[in-house]
Specification:
By secondary structure, this protein is α/β, with parallel strands linked by helices. Helices cover 31% and strands 19% of the residues. β9 and β10 form a beta hairpin. α8 runs parallel beside α9, α8 runs antiparallel to α17 and α18 crosses α22. The structure holds beta-D-glucopyranose. Beta-D-glucopyranose binds next to loops.
């Protein structure tokens, strides 16, 4: 499926032999649509005005809708453009026609876009979806997104985002599948299959772009774009595995990350790009820079000027320049001066052409007329999948005295500004959604609950209204308080130094609790939050993230009990922000945190997370018994009996962890190795078996060598990373 035919290979060589140096460099150039007029200030200033609040996002969008745009038609005609970021199918066809019919060699453009968690149908943000631990779901949502975007001419997704992220201050934790390398790798593989593998029609698949390569998720202090330093063993064991897995699965392209890694920006890093990605993992396609990242190498202080940055980038193995025009403007001279070899250029061009060929763009460059407009009304199947994904991603964090589920006949007060905001359900990095498709929490609740009133009461951008609080308490038998973060508080450039509930929402919860009515907090947020106070005082807490277009219906299904929640956390939740970065699979210390003062702990905060990785409650309960570990020739067979001990049908996420007790490198205290979803009727008991290949029980050392070392291993199985059954085996490999 990932191979090109002999004829396609020949066509690429034939094109290469005909291309001028200018045309070759053109294939390495991605242009952004330039805003060239229609307003009075320079475009950069306009962006700044929106960022610092001088104009609102709506005003900005209004200006943009009337702005004059340059689509680089002349450059496309001259073969100087390879790729653009747009999503309007008519514009795609118009520009593609110029490339195919009017450029000398007729090489099609490739249109790329950030399709991070759905296109027109928006699914849960990745950190939420990962918590479903459902690899089939990961694949299906990707497949739908591929179809919808390809129907708009977008054949290349800047996704999946597979940065392992362990510091919830970093806004981009929302975009990725969490803190664990195994879960992130499984997510990565499934997304690649979903995006790339349905070749039943050229309109059904796209090229994945793995990002951000690499270790961007480890940016120091959770501040976006910040520096990253790490020992090789950490890089190989934690941050590289998802990329390795996804390239094995056939991922076509990769995006280099903004950060420097041990002093070398990933944009110009020959070790990560050439040595690891291309020579060791054998990436079939090309590497693109992140937006403007080549130019930023001058600011990093690694390149003396733009030309130098371009030379370093292309020599390091960075094939396509996103948005700076530096390759376009400087590479020819660099080749003529002998600073970049023709082999380097040819390799990069060949990689780009291979992806275009693999996508079928030479044979099917256009969006077929009959497809344009297909997704104006979302197909029922896509909406149903969005709902299922949202339902499976919800995590029940607390449910004192079985406050939940709520009988839909009861009188319910819904409060909180966020409940009534359709635009707030989609989450960070959603581009192609329409408000008409979004179901707010209030919309969904109204649909399901018969006696319901809404009282705004306050939120992240509005003050508390005490009168409303009184009214809410008077009306409802129970109060559903929707609190959390606005979409703009997570995602790129949205790091927070304090990850408690923003603004006056804790105050609002306090006042609601003072009324004496039972309160359920429904959280809408893009990152793990520090919920120490809420966990102590609010009787029921539902983590509902930003769940996409079907958010409201999914929340209503869970609150009413139509759906028994089954999501588990893909990221640890700290007690307080100061614990960040906090993750379950940390290397052990010589003084593990304990009661005594001279252990690895804080004076003023606990050592452990509030809610660990893999945690999630259900309206029923599960017990684990009879853990058995049997050694076979190449694997361990690990079995456990899981029983539904409650009175409702429910799904448990059964998790297999291990620990290598003594090794030549300090190993994590626990490492996830496998997981599965098990649905059980009340009283039902099932034996769950995992096969853990011995080959997967090793680790990389600081030389990047994979080691399997004899000795004692602990095997754990449980419903979260903290509470597990345990067994010990001694292994000789
Ligand atoms: C982000 C990338 C994104 C790119 C193109 C950058 O700012 O870091 O994740 O793919 O923009 O939109």
């Amino acid at each position: 499926m990932n191979r090109l035919t002999k004829q396609q290979e020949e066509k690429i060589q034939d094109l290469l032999s005909q291309m001028t140096l200018d045309e070759k460099i053109g294939q390495l150039n991605q242009e952004s649509v330039s805003i060239v007029g229609g307003f009075d200030v320079p475009f950069e200033e306009l962006i700044e005005m929106m960022t610092d609040g001088r104009i609102s996002q709506e005003e900005f969008e209004k200006i943009m809708s009337t702005a004059e745009q340059d689509y680089h038609e002349d450059d496309i005609r001259a073969g100087r453009v390879s790729s653009l970021m747009i999503q309007d199918p008519e514009k795609v066809n118009e520009l593609q026609k110029i490339a195919v019919e009017e450029s000398r060699l007729g090489i099609p453009l490739i249109f790329g876009l950030d399709v991070i968690h759905g296109f027109r149908s928006v699914y849960p943000i990745a950190i939420a979806e990962a918590g479903s631990f459902d690899t089939e779901l990961f694949e299906k949502t990707a497949r739908m997104a591929a179809k919808e975007s390809r129907g708009h001419g977008v054949a290349w997704h800047f996704a999946p985002m597979i940065d392992v992220a362990r510091d919830a201050r970093w806004g981009r934790v929302s975009e990725g599948p969490g803190e664990d390398p195994h879960l992130v790798s499984e997510f990565a593989r499934a997304k690649v299959r979903g995006l790339q593998n349905d070749h039943s029609s050229p309109g059904n698949y796209v090229a994945a772009c793995l990002k951000h390569y690499v270790a961007y998720g480890a940016c120091e202090s959770g501040r976006d774009y910040n520096t990253t330093s790490m020992a090789p063993y950490m890089l190989y064991n934690t941050y590289l595995p998802p990329f390795k897995a996804a390239v094995e699965e056939g991922a076509q392209t990769v995006m280099a990350s903004f950060n420097d890694l041990n002093g070398v920006p990933c944009t110009v890093n020959p070790f990560t790009l050439r040595k690891i990605l291309k020579e060791t993992y054998h990436l079939p396609g090309f590497v693109v820079s992140d937006a403007n990242a080549i130019r930023e190498c001058v600011t990093h202080g690694i390149a003396s000027d733009e030309k130098d940055a371009g030379i370093q980038a292309v020599n390091a193995g960075l094939d396509m320049d996103m948005g700076t025009g530096i390759y376009r403007d400087h590479l020819k001279e660099a080749v003529e001066e002998g600073k970049v070899s023709m082999d380097v250029i040819d390799e990069a061009v060949e990689r780009v052409l291979r992806v275009k060929m693999w996508l079928g763009l030479f044979d099917h460059p256009y969006v077929p007329e009959e497809v344009i407009g297909t997704y104006e009304e979302l197909p029922a199947e896509h909406v149903a999948l969005a709902r299922k994904a949202a339902e499976e991603s919800i995590v029940l964090l607390k449910n004192e005295n079985e406050l939940l589920p709520i009988d839909p006949k009861k009188k319910v007060s819904v409060v909180g500004e966020l409940a009534d905001k359709r635009e707030e359900v989609v989450g960070a990095w959603s581009i192609s959604w329409k408000e008409k498709d979004c179901v707010s929490v209030l919309d969904g609740m109204k649909e399901r609950f018969e006696n319901l009133e809404y009282f705004p009461c306050g939120g992240p951008s509005t003050e508390i209204n005490e009168e409303e609080i009184e009214k809410a308490a008077k009306y409802g038998d129970v109060i559903i308080a929707v609190v959390g973060e606005l979409v703009s508080m997570s995602g790129e450039a949205s790091s927070r130094a304090d990850i408690t509930l923003p603004d006056c929402q804790r105050e609002m919860l306090k006042k609601l609790l003072e009324t004496g009515k039972p309160v359920v907090a429904v959280l809408m947020n893009g990152r793990p939050l520090a919920l120490e106070w809420e966990a102590e005082h609010v009787p029921a807490i539902v983590e509902a993230w930003h769940l996409g277009i079907q958010m409201g219906n999914a929340v209503a299904s869970v609150l009413s009990g139509d759906v028994n929640p089954s999501g588990h956390l893909a990221s640890s939740f700290p007690v307080v922000t100061g614990q960040c970065p906090i993750y379950y699979n940390h290397p052990n210390t010589g003084r593990p945190g304990g009661k005594s003062k001279f252990t690895s702990r804080y004076l003023d905060a606990p050592y452990d997370s509030l809610y660990p990785f893999g945690y999630g409650l259900s309206y029923t309960a599960f017990s684990f018994e009879d853990l058995a570990v049997e050694e076979r020739e190449d694997s361990l067979a690990v079995s456990v009996s899981v029983k539904n001990t409650g009175s409702r049908k429910g799904t448990e996420i059964v998790q297999l962890y291990m620990r290598d007790v003594t090794a030549s490198i300090v190993r994590p205290v626990k490492e996830l190795k496998d997981f599965c979803r098990v649905e059980l009727e009340p009283g039902e008991e099932r034996k769950v078996e995992f096969i853990l290949p011995k080959q997967k029980m090793g680790f990389y050392n600081n030389e990047g060598e994979y080691c399997l070392e004899n000795g004692e291993f602990k095997i754990y199985v449980g419903g979260n990373a903290r509470e597990c059954m345990e067994s010990t085996v001694n292994l000789s490999f």
